[in-house]
Design brief:
Belongs to the PEP-utilizing enzyme family. This is Phosphoenolpyruvate-protein phosphotransferase. It is an enzyme of class 2 (transferase). The chain is of the alpha/beta class. It folds into three domains: 142 residues, Glucose Oxidase, domain 1, CATH 3.50.30.10; 102 residues, Orthogonal Bundle (Enzyme I, Chain A, domain 2), CATH 1.10.274.10; 301 residues, Alpha-Beta Barrel (TIM Barrel). 46% of the residues lie in helices and 15% in strands. The chain has 20 helices and 18 strands. The strands form three sheets. It has an eight-stranded mixed beta sheet. An eight-stranded parallel barrel has the order 11-12-13-14-15-16-17-18, surrounded by six helices. Strands 1-2 form a two-stranded antiparallel ribbon. The longest helix has 25 residues. The structure holds phosphoenolpyruvate and magnesium ion.
Length: 575
């Protein structure tokens, strides 16, 4: 739920009427699992501009503003160079390009020419470009926060104020902010920052992505969070999306102690995915490149290799050789394991300029994923060639699937193209309800299916997956979504072919028991979620998983489903 609800001794009420209670719970979206507790430290707000100043020397003023943007761009690039986190580095580099953008600089110069001082010229220029991003929607709209951060840094530089960023109170703390920019999150030191709570942000915001990659519990879209007083003790549950107030230092210590116990219990869990009575469910990793595999693979393989990261932010498509090298690196990094390569998933939230796709009024319903082949089949064919060559060179046979498959005809065409290149295991992502309803027919053409619950929710519930306010519709515990999963699993069983889940739903340990009960054969997730899911499954019997699936399919409300499944599962664990 995105809406903040306060539960305290007096029951439940919507935040906004009474916020940040002395004792109670604020609710947001849990986007990075784990529990923590500590004192709140709020991030300093953006620098405030003084009243406009008269401009005596426009050239000097313009130079001051442009220099501030250049300093910000250079600082962001330097941070990108210093971080060892490849994903964070790429995000910072993209933000540095934004700060150095000639269009932004020109707008600043025009503003100064129109009579504004340097600070106001930067502020107004950023606001202008920000509105353009918001109007573009989707992926672009989420980048508006990056531009806000550039504005704050550049205005601070113009005014000679310190760079806004992470506070340093001298003790571990729970960081509370309106939203976090990539530059902030890169500097987070997990030894001092215990958890993240933001008022804004959605499941795909930078706060969410980077918190997950650092294993920090995080709650976003938590209304009322900014009204929690500085230095107040809070607990953060990044799985349930809850922020508890009104606790004391001893309660916090107890929560941290339990969280540490839980971490060591999780660290001790190893081996393949199994229920308590030995029913196997493959546990796999979601990755964007070989770098995500780090030192080793604590999983049975890779369930989703999102190849589009190789294509993002580029003016030209990566060439055949470059693609072969990238795919081969991943295939070689998972010796003996399974690797599911997803072909290019472009469009909407993942725009690729070199495809030169025409503007669409409703891009989420437009030329996305496999549909790119309708206008640029050459790009997808080169990619299949490169995957086939990487397989030959590494001696590893990949599983290859296409995103956004909708009809049996599309599946048959993709399978024919892949098989013609010697690829033997060909599948499809199930992200469109029409495909889920025809899963059995798709499996006549394909060897496996992988359910992308992020997009399947978006399309089944007609709710933009990046829309924080609609997060309740996108809750993967919604019975409507689970019915579609059940239909795919049933078709897989009938065909004797694997059907996995690789959307975020697979990363919720309790929901993993439901998905297992529905009959999915694998669960694929980002690395920090593996141990909690493995450990939960290992304590739960297949019969309990199946009963959990029935509860979730019958529930009219996702929160009720979650609570009932949690209770019944805890009862089995206690028995
Ligand atoms: C999904 O849609 O669930 C999925 C895994 O694909 P992506 O998040 O990359 O769109
Ligand atoms: Mg998807």
């Amino acid at each position: 739920m995105a809406e903040a609800v306060v539960t305290g001794a007096q029951g439940t009420r919507t935040a906004g009427t009474q916020r940040a209670p002395a004792t109670g719970t604020l609710r947001g979206l849990g986007v990075s699992p784990g529990r923590a507790a500590g004192r709140v430290c709020r991030m300093a707000g953006p620098p405030r501009l003084p009243d406009p100043l008269p401009v005596a020397d426009a050239a000097r003023e313009a130079a001051l503003a442009v220099r501030a943007l250049e300093e910000v761009a250079a600082d962001l690039a330097a941070r990108a160079g210093r971080t060892s986190d490849a994903e964070a580095g790429a995000i910072l580099e993209a933000q540095s390009f934004m700060a150095a953008d000639s269009g932004l600089r020109e707008t600043v110069e025009e503003n100064v020419a129109a009579g504004m001082d340097a600070g106001h010229a930067v502020d107004a220029a950023c606001d202008h470009h920000r509105r353009a991003l918001l109007e573009a929607g989707g992926y672009f709209a989420e980048r508006a926060a990056d531009l806000d951060d550039i504005r704050n840094r550049a205005v601070a530089a113009v005014l000679g104020l310190p760079v806004p960023g992470i506070p340093d109170p001298g003790h571990p703390f729970v960081l509370v902010a309106e939203d976090l920019a990539p530059a902030d999150t890169v500097n987070l030191d997990p030894a001092t920052v215990l958890a993240l709570v933001t008022e804004k942000g959605g499941p795909t915001s930078h706060t969410a992505i980077l918190a997950r990659s650092r294993g920090l519990p995080a709650v976003v879209a938590c209304r009322g969070a900014l009204e929690i007083g500085e230095g107040i003790w809070v607990s953060v549950d990044g799985t349930a999306g809850e922020v508890g107030t009104g606790l004391g230092e001893q309660d916090a210590e107890e929560i941290l102690r339990r969280a540490a116990d839980e971490r060591s219990r999780l660290a001790a869990s190893a081996g393949p995915g199994r229920t308590a009575d030995g029913h196997g469910v493959e546990l796999l990793l979601n990755i964007g490149s070989a770098a995500d595999l780090g030192a080793g693979v604590d999983a049975e393989g890779v369930g989703l290799f999102r190849t589009e990261f190789l294509f993002l932010g580029r003016k030209d498509a990566p060439g055949f050789e470059e693609q072969v090298a990238a795919y081969e690196a991943v295939l070689r990094a998972v010796p003996g394991g399974k690797v599911v390569v997803r072909t290019l998933d472009a469009g909407t939230d993942k725009p690729l300029p070199f495809l030169e796709l025409p503007e669409e009024p409703n891009p989420a319903l437009g030329v996305r994923g496999l549909r790119v082949g309708r206008v640029r089949q050459d790009v997808l064919d080169v990619q299949l060639d490169a995957i086939a060559e990487a397989a030959r060179a590494s001696g590893v046979r990949p599983w290859v699937m296409a995103p956004m498959v909708t009809t049996v005809g599309e599946a048959a065409d993709f399978a024919a193209r892949a098989r013609a290149r010697g690829i033997t295991r060909v599948g499809a992502m199930i992200e469109v309800p029409a495909a889920a309803l025809r899963a059995g027919h798709l499996l006549r053409e394909l060897d496996f299916l992988s359910i992308g619950t992020n997009d399947l929710s978006q399309y089944a519930f007609a709710a933009d997956r990046q829309h924080g306010e609609l997060a309740d519709l996108l809750d993967p515990w919604q019975a409507g979504l689970l019915r579609l999963v059940a239909e795919c699993a049933r078709a897989g069983r009938a065909a004797g072919k694997p059907v996995g889940v690789c959307g975020e739903a697979a990363a919720d340990p309790l929901l993993a028991t439901v998905l297992t009960g529905l009959g999915v054969t694998s669960l694929s997730m980002s690395a920090p979620s593996l141990a909690p899911v493995r450990e939960r499954l290992a304590r739960t019997s297949l019969a309990r998983c199946e009963a959990n699936a029935r509860i979730a399919l019958d529930a009219d409300d996702p929160a009720v489903a979650r609570e009932a499944v949690a209770e019944e599962t805890a009862a089995e664990h206690a028995a």
